[in-house]
Amino acid sequence: MAETKPTGAKKHITGARIAQEIKQYKKDALISPLYTVCCVILEILIPYLTASIIDKGIATGAELPMALDALLPQVDCTTNLTDNTVVSYLAVVLEKSKEAGKPVYGSEIEQVINGCVASEGIEYVELGRQTGRMAARVLNGEDPATITYEIITNSYLYVNPTALADYGLEVPAELSERAIDVTAEAAE
Q1: 3-state class of 20 per DSSP?
Q2: Distance in angstroms (rounded) separating the CA atoms of residues 68 and 176
Q3: Judging by beta carbons within 10 Å of its beta carbon (0-12, 13-18, 19+), is residue 176 exposed, middle or buried?
Q4: Nearest CA to 26 among 96, 79, 70?
Q5: Please, where are the H alpha helices in the chain?
Q6: 109-157 per-position pLDDT tens digit
Q7: Is the dihedral of CA 101, 106, 110, 112 positive or negative?
Q8: What is the number of helices (H) and of strands (E) in the chain?
Q9: Has this prediction a pTM greater than 0.70?
């Protein structure tokens, strides 16, 4: 049987970039990433947040409310890094975090539209277009084994000014030129 070589496109935003963004809002923030223990999300962050991270994962989404009750009094903020289980409970995360007065940093624009204060994330439409162009090449007869696997590293800083104001935060001056206001985007 012939060896197959995968092709496609995926996102890649480094832990350094995520940590850097959060630290711009509060330099000495004690951060907790929200994640399911079966995911490797902490491998992304630990090298950058060792001194300022509380590591507490969940096994199932049903555990998230109790985990947040225990975690939120100990941290300055939380971040959700594309963990599908946590994202499916985003409304719970946002509600409990708001009650505790702790901002949530998201991982993509929709989370920021829904109430996270900010995120450093990719543009998923861009990822879809790139993947679509690759699929078109295959449909036009190109051998998938000859198509290089691509990684999207461009990221965008999405901010929710209303959510930021709710927590007494502002977009730091050094990030303001890059910041994309999701409330303005949603109004268009």
Answers
A1: helix
A2: 30
A3: exposed
A4: 79
A5: 15-25, 41-49, 64-71, 84-88, 90-100, 109-113, 124-139, 161-166, 173-176, 182-187
A6: 899 999 999 988 777 788 888 888 888 988 999 988 888 877 777 788 9
A7: positive
A8: 10, 8
A9: yes
